[in-house]
From TrEMBL:
InterPro entries: CCB3/YggT
Taxonomic path: Bacteria, Bacillati, Bacillota, Bacilli, Bacillales
Transmembrane parts of this sequence: 12-32
Domain of life: Bacteria
Identification of the protein by name: YggT family protein
Swiss-Prot/TrEMBL keywords: Membrane, Transmembrane, Transmembrane helix
Family statement drawn from the similarity comment of this UniProt entry: Belongs to the YggT family.
Length: 94
C-alpha cells in the first residue's frame, strides 16, 4: 500500500509539472497572437484557459499586464509542495 501511495504521489507531481509547462507555453504564445490560431494553440487553450480563467475572475490586469498567470503558476506550485506533507502523513499511518 505504501508503494502505491508513493507512485500516486509521483504521478500527481509529474502531472502538475507537465501542466505547469503547458501553462508557460500557453502564456508565451500570447506574445505571438497567430500561434493561438493553430491547432496546437486551440488545444492548449482548452487545457489552460479553465484554470487561468478562475484566477482572471479575481485578479484584474494592471494596465496592459495580466499578472493572473503568474499567480496561477505560483498556486500550482504551492499545491504541488503541499502534497508532500499530506502523502507523508498517510505513509506514516501505514
Amino acid at each position: 500500500m505504501a508503494e502505491l501511495l508513493i507512485q500516486l504521489y509521483n504521478v500527481i507531481t509529474y502531472a502538475l509539472s507537465i501542466y505547469s509547462i503547458l501553462l508557460v507555453i500557453y502564456i508565451l504564445m500570447s506574445w505571438v497572437p497567430a500561434s493561438r490560431e493553430t491547432k496546437f494553440g486551440r488545444i492548449l487553450e482548452k487545457i489552460a484557459e479553465p484554470y487561468l480563467g478562475f484566477f482572471r475572475k479575481f485578479i484584474p490586469p494592471l494596465g496592459m499586464i495580466d499578472i493572473s498567470p503568474i499567480i496561477a503558476l505560483l498556486a500550482l506550485r504551492f499545491i504541488g509542495q503541499g502534497l508532500a506533507p499530506v502523502f507523508n502523513f498517510f505513509l506514516r499511518l501505514l
